[in-house]
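User: Let's play a game. I give you a shape written as tokens, and you guess the letters that built it. Ready? Here's round one.
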């Protein structure tokens, strides 16, 4: 017998509320979804913030629209869960009220705090060697970016002492929303892993790392599994959301781990290329591994038996949105853009684009890096620039995949998901650039929400194991690479990779 559930995808620029049927027979079936947006506050000093109240109001509006559109009574919703952006810092008081806007995973203000703790003393690859070894021993990874949560926590401690003094707990995005729904302050283990303060061997917060970084361990919430029911929906929030009091709230997980689950990339060697506002190459692996040279590490996922080996790019689909909105035909929609560039050859007539529009994380971490349009001449057309932007996003994914394969064998077929994967044209370019078969899945925009729904099915005992979700994820289309085009991209790749090395000092001079 099927039951209806709602999962929330807490994104960088909007909230998706998705309705699913889950059952032991069909497992997970998408019914409908609603999206509501909110503002991303980008500041000149590197700050990137979101108002937690905006998340909540978007969640309430999307939920009510969803129920109204589908005509489903609130009493039929038997549970809710989350797929969420993570590495966000929300400081709350004892009542769970936010004391400061949430500092996004894109926030790069804490460079001073990062350097104070990690860039002094005897160093390897620019990082304190003793602290690096402690990180690796305890977490299997390392906090090697000023955008990581601990440094933002310490930035607040130093720059907003009155806020820090009132802080009771430090929560991530979905943890704040769960607190508002249930009154409980908890963190799923995959979110905890993303703080680089989680002891993967003893499955607890690390006292050693908290002490090393001067972090108050009392500020860290209780830990739970992604499939745990963390509480029931309480009266006031239930009315605001339009849901029934007592609806079970399941923890859910971080977007990186749940997008892999929702795409069916749950077996060792499976690779998901995700391109939404940001993007990543996530490989399901069976052991912890840190590639300090390329800043790629394995984090705990929703499945306790595997890890997510994650290589991230800060802006991915956002770059495609940028070029669509700014070049030549300002009123083009995405279909018109694709029609405009469809005859542009592989390599965009020599134009190369780097997708580092808000800095970058892997295989180099540099908040000062920016997008580059390289090799323009007087014959360059708008369609060349647009094609180059799409290719640049895909080229960075190829770079990340090659870095991944230095340490792990990957399965030959790649799954591609996120907003960019809606376009058949972009899927084909991705296949050509990677030189691999690429599979898109049904409801690719809902891939993270699908992962959260799968966790609800596990939580309710309808699915025995997260890995079973692979059997019911439907492939929409397979894209075979044009190997002549791939040869063009392999020739371009070294030039693309050198754009950062050759411009690193200029980026610092202009943007530091």
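Assistant: Ready! My guess for every position:
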């Amino acid at each position: 017998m099927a039951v209806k559930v709602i999962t929330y995808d807490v994104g960088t620029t909007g909230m998706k509320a998705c309705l699913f049927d889950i059952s032991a027979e069909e497992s997970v079936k998408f019914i409908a979804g609603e999206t509501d947006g909110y503002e991303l506050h980008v500041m000149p000093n590197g700050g990137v913030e979101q108002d937690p109240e905006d998340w909540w109001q978007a969640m309430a509006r999307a939920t009510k629209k969803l129920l109204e559109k589908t005509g489903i009574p609130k009493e039929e919703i038997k549970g809710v869960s989350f797929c969420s952006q993570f590495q966000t810092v929300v400081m709350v008081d004892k009542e769970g009220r936010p004391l400061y806007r949430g500092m996004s995973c894109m926030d790069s203000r804490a460079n001073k705090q990062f350097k104070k703790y990690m860039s002094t003393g005897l160093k390897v690859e620019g990082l304190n060697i003793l602290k690096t070894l402690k990180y690796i021993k305890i977490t299997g990874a390392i906090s090697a970016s000023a955008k990581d949560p601990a440094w933002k926590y310490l930035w607040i401690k130093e720059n907003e002492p009155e806020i820090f003094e009132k802080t009771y707990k430090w929560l991530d995005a979905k943890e704040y929303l769960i607190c508002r729904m249930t009154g409980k302050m908890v963190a799923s283990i995959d979110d905890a892993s993303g703080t680089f303060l989680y002891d993967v061997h003893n499955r607890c917060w690390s006292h050693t790392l908290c002490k090393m970084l001067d972090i108050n361990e009392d500020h860290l919430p209780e830990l739970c599994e992604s499939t745990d029911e963390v509480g029931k929906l309480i009266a006031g929030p239930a009315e605001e959301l339009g849901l029934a009091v007592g609806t079970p709230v399941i923890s859910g997980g971080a977007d990186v781990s749940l997008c892999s689950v929702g795409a069916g990339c749950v077996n060792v060697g499976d690779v998901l290329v995700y391109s939404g506002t940001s993007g990543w190459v996530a490989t399901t692996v069976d052991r912890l591994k840190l590639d300090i040279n390329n800043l790629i590490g394995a984090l705990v996922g929703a499945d306790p038996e595997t890890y997510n080996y994650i290589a991230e790019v800060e802006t991915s689909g956002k770059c495609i949105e940028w070029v669509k909105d700014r070049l030549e035909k300002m009123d083009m929609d995405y279909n018109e853009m694709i029609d405009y560039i469809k005859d542009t050859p592989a390599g965009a007539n020599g134009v190369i684009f780097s997708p580092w529009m808000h800095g970058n994380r892997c295989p180099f971490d540099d908040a000062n890096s920016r997008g580059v349009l390289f090799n323009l001449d007087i014959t360059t057309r708008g369609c060349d620039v647009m094609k180059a932007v799409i290719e640049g996003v895909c080229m960075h994914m190829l770079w990340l995949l090659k870095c991944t394969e230095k340490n792990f064998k990957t399965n030959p077929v790649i799954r591609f998901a996120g907003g960019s994967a809606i376009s058949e044209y972009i899927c084909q370019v991705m296949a050509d650039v990677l030189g691999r078969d690429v599979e898109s899945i049904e409801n690719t925009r809902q891939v993270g929400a699908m992962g959260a729904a799968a966790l609800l099915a596990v939580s309710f005992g309808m699915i025995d194991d997260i890995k079973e979700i692979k059997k019911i994820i439907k492939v929409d289309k397979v894209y075979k690479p044009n190997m002549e085009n791939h040869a063009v991209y392999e020739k371009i790749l070294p030039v693309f990779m050198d754009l950062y090395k050759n411009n690193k000092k200029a980026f610092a001079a202009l943007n530091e």
